[in-house]
Amino acid sequence: MRRLRDGRRGLTLVELLTATLLAAFVVTGLVRLLDLTLDMWSKAEVRRDGVERTNTLLGLMADDLRNLHGGASGDLLVDWQPFDHDADGLADRAWPRLRLVRQVGAAAVQQLQARAAEEAAAFAAADGEAPVPTSSPDGRAPSGPLPEATGLVEVAWVLVPDDAGPDRFRGRLLRGERLFGDLGRDSLLDPALLSGGRPEDGVLDDVATGVLWLGVELATQTTVLSNGWEVGPRLADACTAWDARAADRIDPELHARNELGKGMPAFGGRPLLPRRVRLVLELEREKDIKRRTRLLDAATAVQTQLQVDDERRVPEPGSYVLIDGEWMEVLGIDPGRIRVRRGARETAAHELPAGALVHYGASVETEVPILLHEDDWRLGG
Fold first, then answer.
1. Which residues of the chain have a pLDDT value below 50?
2. Is 15 strand, coil or helix?
3. CA-wise closest residue to 93 among 104, 80, 83
4. In whole angstroms, what is the distance from residue 172 CA to residue 212 CA?
């Protein structure tokens, strides 16, 4: 700073430029900090919204399992259907299906009866007939009264490939209900319902799209959970398939996950129910795809370091990503690349094209205790 002739002080050009430069550095730092803060806030909001949506679906599924009917009319069927997503003639992934009989309150029964009556009236009106108080999924008006209000409902959860979506490797989750004993509808536990792996149109309702993964694990009476869930062929292991009536309704040759638990007793008139069920659901919304990264280069089937255009858009190590139909576990993240374990979740490692999208979603897990399981199973009986 220099003193002027009239005694006033002023800044030199060098001092002014230096002050401007320092101010620019400070402002740039603040802008970057603000941008980083907003980006973190945006990611947190996106994840929170995704987790809330996933939690809602898991809550509905868990509620169905908690209310399993343990009486003579009860049932639980969990199996896996393989699909050929890449149309090469070989099944490359399997999706789970849960079908069960649950107990509901009087209000839920009345709602289902009212809906059945409305559908029957609509079908009858379309055919020019008098309305009949029941319904049929084939569009015709069957005869007969509404089923008796037993307090039991059949429920089906089915996951199928979302052929109408932007990615053939993502799934569409369906759910349907049927009053137990409704002769006007086919049973949701009937094997013919899912012939070919998919239900007929109108039998089940869409509840979610963009499903990347739905894991289902079940604990038998001998499963040991003190060290976590372990699926396998031992008595202490959990299983991924279930037939509560031991009626050979599941084909183990169809997929490896259709293997029932070991040491299961014979059916004795009451359904054999698991002690606990573990559910893991991962969803990816349409707007999430805009935030995903892509592979910069093609990769061989054995390559474990993948070049990506933005490593910041990859989930943290320990998470799973889906690339061109192959699941991988993220082991580490480096500038411009990720380190992965190939062929996770029973998918096969294969060559990956450049530009392939790195899919992942909000993963939510829940464990459901089944209070009505048969404690006095006669092992080996």
1. 132-147, 380-381
2. helix
3. 83
4. 9
